[in-house]
Amino acid sequence: VRCQLSPAHRPLQASAVLRRVSDEQKKEPLTSSSQQQFDSHPTDHQPEQEPQGPRPSYTGQGGQESEDYESEEQLQHRILTAALEFVPEHGWTAEAIAEGAKTLGLSVATAGMFHSDGSELVLHFVSQCNTKLSELLEQEQKLVQLGEAEKKPTDQFLRDAVQVRLKMLIPYIEKWPQALSILLLPHNIPSSLNLLTSMIDDIWHYAGDQSTDFNWYTRRAVLTGIYNTTELVMMQDSSPDFEDTWRFLENRVADAMNMGNAANQVQSTGEAVVQGLMGAAVTVSN
Amino acid sequence: ALRALCGSVRGLAAAPETHFGFQTVTEAERREKIYKVFESVAEKYDVMNDSMTLGIHRVWKDILVHKMNPSPGTLLLDVAGGTGDIAFRFINYVRSVRERQLQQKLKHHQNLSWQEISESYQEDKSKSLGDSQVVVCDINKEMLKVGKQKAQHLGYSEGLSWVLGNAEELPFDDDMFDVYTIAFGIRNVTRIDLALQEAYRVLKPGGRFLCLEFSHVSNPLLSRLYDLYSFQVIPVLGEVIAGDWKSYQYLVESIRRFPPQEELKAMIEDAGFFKVDYQNLNWGIVAIHSGFKL
């Protein structure tokens, strides 16, 4: 009889030890998930290191086991976050991941857990940026709801959102072209496309878009185009503080707004023309 | 007479049974027999590998080191490394990665003074491996001897050391190595679980376990051809080239007795490794198992 936990539920002992040591030194708050809110006290008393037989898992699938153990996924996220620091020097590569692992006290061989082309690092970074953007937009929305801030007009809202998001790239701007090429690799396209579309969707959601017709698609397509082109412009922008990029962005957003108006105008003009023709036909028939 | 019976019963109970190829022997007998096998084949080991696998074993070993993707500064323990194939490939790989790193660094610094340039050349000479090291550990003196000779012949000296040791009881401290490899060796270990536990022990946190070994072919047609080749051709090659039919009969039988991919994966997980996975090469003739100490 093996009273062993299945791999998905076994705690990561080595990483738990490392985290405990670093926690002791820094006394940082635990990164517990929302389910563990009752365990908000820091690790002053050390729970058992050894697993005491099969533990009931608090979460469903491979999530955090208890406050001191973490799943493989969480460890991977921590390694990737630590690796971002080394990207300006090593690029989006397995070497950056290896350096990141070293700062966490793990062997450089840990980089073997990831693809050797640095894909996961880039995707992790993009995902992190998108999450940050969502949080900022949500905070802004709360302020507006509380009446502490004015609701921005749509074009300014879009401009600000895209600008904030692109500014997150500034620390890594030198190696960003490499990241873009990695995102375009065939095996990464599903994930990168997914991240892009959900980010654009988020921005429109917070901009107050509630369309249920074809506009939904048009708006997202337009904003995606604006975002991608601005990103490319930013790559080769050498003006101080990326002024040229922001001006480009302003112009594109203005274009998009005008295009919307123009479309409406065309439609109404078209309707007017048709009505005129109908009138003429009736007159002629009479 | 009763005492004699008790004695023999005790003797039998004290010696756990295991397999040597298709024979059943005690663990102690198995260790001895395997030692003798490798003692006798050591000189012709590399030649036999080439002829049995038609040179493909080189590709398998290359794939193993590529999968490892070691960065300069990695400490590798190659267990059952005998004649040094994995160790030499590791050194080559790390050396080329290091060269590329240095070239990139030079590219970035365009305006160097003569002083800086000469300093960088000195650094090159002293750190061509970037502090990487490989320890080759083998239980068999003859295999190590052949390995050392090969190293001398091929010009490998830096970052390489040879240690006599048993995979079931490694003569190293805990948490020492970045990567542990065992290529075509774990099959010959009598207590695989002990070897896996030792691997776990000597690896640093985050360290990687890599095992390259003959495995199970599931495709029925291929399996029949493989069996035919294994049992009809290989022992004959063994007799003709190395003058040793029995050792190569053992080799082929031991492959059949070795646990298949999923079972080995479970054993590795039992030893405490995470993210355990395997990659079949040549439809399962060979498999690379990988796990991390997390």
UniProtKB/TrEMBL annotation, chain A:
Organism: Zapornia atra (Henderson crake)
SUBUNIT field: Homodimer. Heterodimer; two heterodimers of COQ7:COQ9 come together on the same side of the lipid pseudo-bilayer and form a curved tetramer with a hydrophobic surface suitable for membrane interaction. These two tetramers assemble into a soluble octamer with a pseudo-bilayer of lipids captured within. Interacts with COQ7; this interaction allows ubiquinone (CoQ) isoprene intermediates presentation to COQ7 and facilitates the COQ7-mediated hydroxylase step.
GO cellular component term, pick one: mitochondrial inner membrane
Species lineage: Eukaryota, Metazoa, Chordata, Craniata, Vertebrata
Gene Ontology terms: biological process: ubiquinone biosynthetic process
Family in the record: Belongs to the COQ9 family.
InterPro entries assigned to the protein according to its UniProt record, in alphabetical order: COQ9_C (IPR013718), COQ9_HTH (IPR048674), Ubiq_biosynth_COQ9 (IPR012762)
Protein name (record): Ubiquinone biosynthesis protein
Biased composition (Polar residues): 30-40
NCBIfam families reported for this sequence: diverge_rpsU
Location of the region described as Disordered in the Swiss-Prot/TrEMBL record: 1-74
Domain of life: Eukaryota
Gene Ontology molecular functions: lipid binding
Main subcellular location: mitochondrion
Residue ranges annotated for the COQ9 C-terminal domain, each copy included: 189-260
Biased composition (Basic and acidic residues): 20-29
The UniProt record lists the keyword Transit peptide: yes
Automatic annotation (TrEMBL), chain B:
Pfam families reported in the protein's UniProt record: Ubie_methyltran (PF01209)
KW S-adenosyl-L-methionine (keyword) present: yes
Entries under PROSITE patterns matching the protein: SAM_MT_UBIE, UBIE_2
One GO-annotated biological process of the protein: methylation
Gene Ontology terms, MF aspect: 2-methoxy-6-polyprenyl-1,4-benzoquinol methyltransferase activity
Highest taxon of the lineage: Eukaryota
UniProt KW keywords: Methyltransferase, S-adenosyl-L-methionine, Transferase, Ubiquinone biosynthesis
Quaternary context: Component of a multi-subunit COQ enzyme complex, composed of at least COQ3, COQ4, COQ5, COQ6, COQ7 and COQ9. Interacts with PYURF; the interaction is direct, stabilizes COQ5 protein and associates PYURF with COQ enzyme complex.
Function description: Methyltransferase required for the conversion of 2-decaprenyl-6-methoxy-1,4-benzoquinol (DDMQH2) to 2-decaprenyl-3-methyl-6-methoxy-1,4-benzoquinol (DMQH2).
Protein name: COQ5 protein
Species per Swiss-Prot/TrEMBL record: Zapornia atra
